[in-house]
Amino acid sequence: MSGTLLLVQALNGLQLGVLLFLVAAGLTLVFGVMDFINLAHGVQYMLGAYLGAHFAAIMGSFWLALPLALLGSLAIGLLLEVLVFRHLYARDHLAQVLATFGVILVLNQGVKAVWGTAPRELPVPALLDGGITIMPGLQYPVFRIAIIAAGLATAGLLWLVVERTKVGMLIRAGATNPRMVAALGVDVRRLFTLVFATGAMLAGFAGVMAAPIFSVEPGMGDTVLILAFVVIVIGGIGSIRGAFIAALLVGLIDTLGRSLMPDLMRLILDASSARQAGAAIASMLVYVAMAAVLAFRPAGLFPVRGG
């Protein structure tokens, strides 16, 4: 593989990593603060993409569709929290898994009923169309660079909120010792609602930003959800810093692995076998990385220190 192609794939890995961070950040907060396993988090990513495509088709503008999709994702997240998830906080993890899996089925069918089964598209905004020269002979899409920049900016904003504000202090305390937070008079239910709504909006934001690149279709959040769980396990449950670093690692491992493994396999196998073996091994790399981290750091790379 040439150096130019390697650079492109590395940038693609960073872009996938920041999208995974936007999904995993909300998921790790919900799991860390609320001890709640939300399998339906990937559906909120899907809904963000559908809302973005829907509002863009009506308004004729990506920039008008983006805030509307974020508000829609927030509203749907709050509605689900009030109607369904709030009643599961005191239940065991098995009940949470079964209930949120049911939400996945309902919302996937709801999306098919409203928008149909055919994939939908969200065009790249004209302002971010085209490419930018990052080295002689190499142009990289402006929109993908914008995704990386938006993800980094969101990560910085989340860090400021979590580390430098009173709300962030409560979130960190809730992730460390939620019983003590409740005993000190904090309205834990309101804190849970805030965390859940933030997570839903972040997942919706990731969906809108991914929609111009990936196909918008029912079930599109399933793969992202699996990778997001890998991210929070590697990074440490409840850790924003861990989610950010782990998301970039997973994005790079997944993207570079799919690009490099077939070429590496050609060193020992014929072309056809190398493609098949390379693709199979590449699909396992992120899980091998997760297993390796858990073997040496069972709580993840940056665990939240419990009290």
TrEMBL record:
Q: Which Pfam families match?
A: BPD_transp_2
Its source organism is: Plastoroseomonas hellenica
Hey, which family's this protein in?
Answer: Belongs to the binding-protein-dependent transport system permease family. LivHM subfamily.
UniProt protein name = Branched-chain amino acid ABC transporter permease
Record bears the keyword Cell membrane: yes
Which compartments is it annotated to reside in?
Answer: Cell membrane
- Where does the chain cross the membrane? 12-33, 45-62, 68-85, 97-118, 138-162, 191-214, 226-256, 277-296
User: Which keywords has UniProt assigned to this entry?
Assistant: Amino-acid transport, Cell membrane, Membrane, Transmembrane, Transmembrane helix, Transport
